[in-house]
Design goal:
273 residues; two-stranded antiparallel sheet; 15 strands
Length: 273
Amino acid sequence: MQTFTPLIGIAPKLDDKNSMMHVPVEYVRSIVAAGATPLILPLTWDMNAYERLLPSCDGFLLCGGLDIEPQRYGRGDTHVNLTAHTPGRDALECLIVNYAYEFDVPILGICRGMQMLNVVRGGTLHLDLSERAGSEEEHIAHDAIEHPFDYVHDVDVVPGTMFAEIVEEERIPVNSLHHQGVNGLGRNMRASAYATDGLVEAIEAIDRTFMMGVQWHPENLVTDGRMLNLFDTLARHSFEARNSGRLEAAQGLSIELTHKSGAWPDITLTRAD
């Protein structure tokens, strides 16, 4: 008898220069290792595609990638370390986060994905970690990792959080690779792990079943049971969301997206009658 496996929608990276959408294979392998089925979503402005696809997904994964456009979180300035921006990807991930929040669909954000969870929920980012107060000696070189499979620093886990239940330890090593980080937390988001220099390294929603982000790259460390457990937890909650019938409310979904210059688009999600 065929066993149901949850379907996890993955927002891809966008390579405008080469007209390509792609997802690093480690994300796909991590979803499969957790017993779920990955689905790479398209980047398109046709909302009919997402009206069909999003209700089919039992959970979502937001991957790492290029910087989010600073105007999205109220910053009008720039920084020499900023990367290129991908407005189409920003818009898709904004839609996914709003959809996941509206219908309580499990979602895990990694690196940029964690930052996206935070800013869509109204939070802010450090444009570059060099703008944080204090001397360089007091800060971890979060972007200094030489290999994505290497541990580079520890994070302190906040007791009583869902993340603490997942890793079951007070301090764990991670492989950070980023020059930006969470500044102000978004609505109903809380920090669940901090770097030893005080930078937020994991967040979670306090009013949803599973909406979590981590700043490092657990997809490169799945031989570490604590990291694989993040994907296992996403898969388990996604299975339960579908099995409970909770996601049926999104069937017949209608999406209206109105573009706004320099800000998130207005998104209207209409449930079926």
